[in-house]
Amino acid sequence: MTSSEVHLSASRQVIVGVQYLFVAFGATVLVPLLVGLDPSTALFSAGVGTLLFHLVTKGRVPIFLGSSFAFIAPIISATELYGLSGALFGIVGVALVYFVMAGLVRAFGMKFIHKLFPPAVIGPIIMLIGLSLSSSAVKMAAENWWLAMASLATAIVVTLYVKGLLKLIPIFCGIVVGYALDATFFEVDYQSIADAPWFALPQLITPTTFEWQPILFMIPVAIAPVIEHIGDVYVVNSVAEKDFTKDPGLHRTLAGDGLACFFAACVGAPPVTTYSEVTGAMSLTKVCQPRVLQIAAVTGIVFSLVGKVSALLRSIDPAVLGGIMLLLFGTIAGAGVKNLLEHKVDLSNARNLVIVSVTLTIGIGGAVLQLGSFTMQGIGLAAIVAVVLNQLLPKTH
Asked: CA 248, CA 182: separation in Å to the nearest integer?
């Protein structure tokens, strides 16, 4: 244990664990609401996935896994192309990427990963994750601009001016204020909440489509979240003052995330990823004990079994979610720009400019690659193009 880490009694561990789930709650349930999946299933998957992660990492890494925003656009597109079952089966491809990366890191170390996915490749891919659904955010917000702007304004104010743990949950705060205003001045369907049972199993959906096309569709999209995972582990290292890339090893954290994504595919939930919001909460509380994150995971599973929670989440007006999305997707795009700046990617260099420009144009422009019955488009196609250009273009320019 490090000198700065706070050691808690069992009862206080439970309190902080529930608090950590509260930090992750808004983002975890937002993703399934946007892609048409059951938010309770996402909570259940996040809880079980986190426990699986801790099992693979020998219970040493204080990380919570929640729904990944990177897969909102791909799941929507894959559902249109292959149906919901096909999209869920495609998530298996995400797990495969994590497993392959874990093997590569174990065999060759991080240098190989950085060579394959330099900042000039990762930056524009992250930008596309945010920009690809910007039009959807505007359409949802347009259903009721008053609610959308109130939710957006709340999230912005919390992000900029609020301190402490509340600062880490701007999404949750925006949704709460938007919901309250909707209930006060407009109309909320309370009947569905009243009719919902207190105890209800999550809507588990097992994929029945077993085709390689949706898997290949999802594989390229997983590149950015994998790199994000690696970055988050280093941040957790700093907060906990331990080197988890060596013990238990980065290959184990990647494999743990991959196993959690595979479980998500099997139960009908979005892929999961490391949550920087929870890491931020740990930096404030100085509570980095893995057991506390395990308590948060168990609490998520318990919440997923409360039927009225799912009904309450489904009663949120789409405009409220649209307002949050206006900030959220822009923030993700901004993270891509930040990635380029932090790594000092020289865009006056013709090679870098070509990679970034072509990647963004293909992703935003909606380019489609059609090979027989196989289709690739959007972020996935752009990611493949970025990786190929990085390998083929001469580095002398």
From this structure: 48
